[in-house]
Amino acid sequence: MASIKHFRDLRAWQQCRLVRQRMRLLVKSWPSEEKFRLTDQIIRSSRGPTSHIAEGYGRFHEKDNARFCRIARGSLYETQDHLITACDEGLIEEAVMNEHVEMIEGAIRTVNAYINYLNSISGGNNGMVSDPGVIYGQAEMKMSDPPSAEQPLEADL
Fold it and tell me: Residue 30 pLDDT more than 50?
């Protein structure tokens, strides 16, 4: 089992960093009138996940860490919504939107798996987080209907 020495070692943080970098590149070509509108929104929402994962990691307690990871996941979904808006407004083509949404889905899967891992850790490790022995976030996720009050996401339980 590899020991995590810094939040930068977490695959969830690394994938969210890639999302942030790709969003920054994407919006560079958008019109200037969007600078303080959608461009600003997508930049902010794509910066949130790495910040929240880092902050959660700094708490050194699994429950706090998982809570911040759930906030990071929410920011990833927000970024997806901004991409859909950008497509609807004609700022990007649907194929570009789909490519970026798919990349974000991969980050969401990894964050969900990391949350599940954190929730499974017992209290006997002095609050230190280590990387799981199995690779997390690699399984394909099938798209389904959005969660509802009757059928919440497993990670939300």
Answer: yes
DSSP 36-75: TTHHHHHHHHHHHHHHHHHHHHHH--HHHHHHHHHHHHHH
Residue type, 77: Y
Environment class of residue 62 by beta-carbon count within 10 Å: exposed (0-12), middle (13-18) or buried (19+)?
buried
pLDDT in tens, 57-67: 998 789 999 99
Of 18, 106, 16, 105, whose CA–CA distance to 68 is shortest?
16
Beta bridge partners of 3: 130
Contact 91, 157 (CB under 8 A): no
Instruction: Write out the two tokens for 123.
Output: 């209290």
* Ranges of H-type helices in the chain: 11-27, 38-59, 62-88, 94-120
User: 58 versus 148: which is more confidently predicted?
Assistant: 58
If one counts every other C-beta atom within 10 angstroms of the C-beta of residue 33, the result is 9
